[in-house]
Amino acid sequence: MSQSQLPLDTARIRAEFPAFKQPGLQDWAFFENAGGSYTSAPVLNRMKHFYWATKVQPYHFYPASREAGQAMDLAHRRMAQALNVTVDWIHFGPSTSANTYTLGHAFEGWMKPGDAIVVTNQDHEANSGAWRKLAQRAVDVREWKVDKDTGRLDLAELDKLLDSKVRAICMPHCSNIVGEINPVADVATRARSFGAITVVDGVSYAPHGLPDLLTLGADIYLFSTYKTYGPHQGVMAIRPSLAAELPNQGHYFNDTQPRKRLVPAGPDHAQVAACAGVVDYLETVAAIAGDAVEGADPFRKAHNAMRAQETTLLAPLLDYIRGKNKLRLIGPDDPNLRAPTVSIALPEPGITAAERLARHGIMAAGGHFYAYRLLEALGVNPGEGVLRLSFVHYTSREDIQRLINALDVEL
Fold this sequence. Notes:
Strand content: 5-15%
Radius of gyration: 21 Å
CATH class of the largest domain: Alpha Beta
Distance between the termini: 34 Å
CATH topology of the largest domain: Aspartate Aminotransferase, domain 2
Helix content: 25-40%
Order of helices and strands: HEHHEHEHEHEHEHEEHHHHHEEHEEHEH
CATH superfamily of the largest domain: Type I PLP-dependent aspartate aminotransferase-like (Major domain)
């Protein structure tokens, strides 16, 4: 496949999203996908059916209740299938921020004074603040710092922080501002050599293809389904042996129920059931890609197709930004090294630039996007933030050109 070819037919992909048929969205190009993607039809259909036919307490013995529980169980199985893990890895919670906060509490009982944990200043605060609070429990919190010019996390700098006291390394698969795809598998290998685990925030990576977690090697992987074409839920994939070690965060009488131990409030039944539609959609992506893209199974094929689509679409945007000396691109300008979450530091608040782009039918956003520490490290005022332009595989060539034309006028 040449660089100019797209593996996915944009029209067929967009046909899976009711948003593209809505009159109020017809004249807009959506470039704030990092804040949440459009929802796919398979998810919406499952959600509608649950609310219309099975909106009862699940797992009882009457038909509607049995069907509700079966739909939830199916979502657990299907999500495990897409991530290439067993079903006992999968935990649904209200959001990734809430899930990480709960895990932080669990780690308070799992770690001992004098233990060490590595965090980064590249993360969304949800995957940083929860772990930094362990310092109050006499845990040694060590910061893996980004390069102040590039925003990159250098493995050589991580190596300086590792020793036998480290029990966990917490990092993003991909920053929601820098965009660079981090070498999680290499970090996981390093962690295991010291007897430590790896906790990965996958929120900004997962919309571009769910990873094979067994290959990745992470012990905990978190992401948000509302950014992967589904409902507003968070998924925690946790190595079962580790989940069993963590102290129970739920009701005491649920201590023997793995799904309930780390989700104290309980998930939304309908939204859990609807998450099976995320996996249905990924299979559709694989079918649309056909023989043009390789993959060991439909989910690896969907991942590869989405990445190839986005990398091709990203190239002209990065070429344009590279040619504008007054624009500071955060992260690498090689589309193969990053996700299509493109942040630009400007001599004005990012939200001001986003407001002007809206005049051209561009939906974008500005701010610090909960990566306050990262912007401080890069010398960017978090109060002004960056302009963020984020897209996914359903973005069209026309959208990209429309964005470039708007940037040329407004920046």
